[in-house]
Design goal:
single chain; mainly alpha; globular; transmembrane; transport; transmembrane helix; membrane
Length: 426
């Protein structure tokens, strides 16, 4: 039976999520993880098939990369629409409807007759996955705040790290038995399972009293209010530019590793997984780091280190020193730093606007995927090689660092006493 109960805010200092029984909290977090995985699965599962799609439709690599851009555009636009909607009508209805859109688009991708149709359907897939992403983030903010939210974002980033490991590997295995269309069959089944789990397990976390019903004008006012917060805007730009570095790796790696270094589809899947291991390790290390340092301190340190590793990547890619490992090692280190940036920047940003968590999460996600949508074809435009990928990765980290230290200035941000107490307690 679907869980239609609504979680109500507590009367004391504990957040609603901290008051849940452990078993129920685990089930909710598990489903949130599945929802968070839908976007990465949609983006990454068909990566090993990009060269095959290029040959099948007789188009250029840059044109095929636009199907990835379409997914990212859908993810960006969808969040702008679904976020405010979830603040107005609650979390469950937009969430289930969005996953349903993804399911339908996945079915149609299986029979797409040409690249243009496939690209359009990928936009729809992105729109559906956007609902899963933005509502999951809003639910985290409904249930937790401060350090507790940062820790849960770290756990969800574990899913974001595991999904890129599993997705290309699954895609590579599927390609051994069928064409690239079989990849979308698997995505259809995954969307169906996630939709069922969401309907059964997730409660409504936004009470009627906390819903915002200002309509289009109210939504515009909410977005306008967010744009007046310099720190929030800077943080979502940091998250977006860091995402650009990650998307540059995602969009360019199949061509760099398969066409440039001669790896097979299966070898690519395994090597691609190595980068996800660094991302996973960093997100889980973040939970431990939060016991000693604030999210602001971790964000500043990881950006500094990521910029350094990005510079090393660019130098080694240009000089071709070290060959394959000369590219992979600094690239994986950059991804590890992104794994530290991604939980903390959203936690700090959303913590500033709990009264409109859905809208704030929507704008955050839209910027992340919007900037990523620019990064994906940019790698192809620059040449679809190791140097092109390294330029975009380094450029993303450089821009993120400049925004962080010039606009956000994390060392000046206050830390709430409750956050410090939660850090010590955990």
């Amino acid at each position: 039976m679907a869980d239609t109960r609504t979680l109500t805010p507590p009367d004391d200092d504990l957040s609603p999520g901290e008051l849940l029984p452990a078993g129920r909290r685990f089930r909710i977090v598990l489903v949130l993880g599945l929802l968070t995985a839908l976007g990465p699965l949609t983006i990454d599962m068909y990566l090993p098939a990009l060269p095959t799609i290029t040959d099948d439709f007789g188009v250029t690599a840059a044109a095929v990369q636009l199907t990835l851009t379409g997914t990212l555009v859908g993810l960006a636009l969808g969040q702008l629409l679904v976020g405010p909607l979830s603040d107005a009508v609650g979390r469950r209805a937009p969430l289930i409807a969005g996953v349903g859109v993804h399911l339908l688009a996945s079915v149609l991708c299986v029979i797409a007759p040409n690249l243009a149709v496939l690209g359009g359907l990928r936009v729809l897939q992105g729109l559906g996955a956007a609902a899963a992403s933005v509502v999951a983030m809003a639910i985290v903010r409904d249930l937790f705040d401060g350090f507790a939210a940062a820790r849960l974002f770290s756990r969800l980033m574990l899913v974001v790290g595991v999904a890129p490991i599993l997705a290309p590997t699954i895609g590579g295995q599927v390609l051994q038995f069928t064409s690239w269309r079989g990849v979308f069959v698997v995505l259809t089944l995954a969307a169906a399972a996630i939709m069922a789990a969401t309907a059964v397990v997730l409660p409504e976390t936004l009470t009627v009293e906390r819903r915002r019903s200002g309509g289009v004008a109210g939504t515009i006012r909410d977005y306008g209010r967010l744009f007046t917060d310099r720190v929030y805007v800077g943080l979502i730009l940091v998250a977006g530019l860091s995402m650009a570095a990650l998307i540059a790796y995602v969009s360019g790696s199949s061509y760099v590793l398969q066409d440039g270094f001669g790896l097979s589809e299966q070898q690519f899947a395994y090597v691609f997984a190595g980068g996800a291991v660094g991302l996973i390790g960093a997100t889980q290390l973040n939970v431990r780091l939060l016991r000693r340092w604030t999210p602001q301190q971790i964000l500043a340190g990881s950006l500094t280190a990521g910029l350094g590793f990005g510079a090393v990547l660019l130098v080694l890619a240009v000089t071709e020193i070290g060959g394959l490992f000369g590219v992979l090692v600094p690239l994986w280190l950059v991804l590890a730093m992104v794994g530290l940036i991604m939980p903390n920047a959203p936690a700090i940003a959303l913590g500033r606007h709990g009264e409109a968590a859905g809208t704030a999460a929507a704008l955050l996600g839209a910027v992340q995927f919007g900037v990523g949508a620019v990064a994906a074809p940019l790698v192809g435009v620059l040449g679809v090689g190791a140097v092109a990928m390294a330029i975009v990765v380094f450029g993303g980290m450089l821009a993120a660092s400049l925004v962080c230290f010039v606009v956000v200035r994390p060392h000046r941000l206050p830390v709430e006493h409750k956050q410090l107490a939660l850090a010590v307690a955990h």
